[in-house]
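Internal tracking record. Fields below are filled automatically when a chain is submitted to the structure queue. Please do not edit lines marked as system-generated. If the sequence contains nonstandard residues, flag them in the REMARKS field before resubmitting.
Queue: standard
Priority: normal
Entity type: single polypeptide chain
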Amino acid sequence: MPKDRWYADGLKFTCTQCGNCCSGDPGYVWATKAEIAAIAKFLGRGDGWLDERHLRRVGFRYSLTEKPDGDCVFLERRPDGSTGCRIYPVRPVQCRTWPFWPELLHSRDAWERAKRKCPGMDQGRHYDFVQIETIRRMR
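SYSTEM-GENERATED OUTPUT FOLLOWS
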């Protein structure tokens, strides 16, 4: 285990389902063709694809769309204030690997900045170095 990594002793994270990682400034939620097909199947679409309400092409890649308020098109805000992902079981790797993204693991400072918006970071379940690296490399 490399001791030169600031997170060599591991990190804590437990999702609070606040929805903050699924909303905010415009951006991209990248999805592969296989992920798009899995989402389409989960939504009961017989054609195995998503339409422009859910998916946009960006160069040679695909990204899930956003609502005008910055929410991911699949983020559900419930009347009681809770949130949820309508495609949680088949969400893209980018979503499944939050917050263990390379850009957030680059430095303690980057992690701390992201933590201001994510109440689950540094809370709950402990992930050891090997688990973090396995997740980080999924992206």
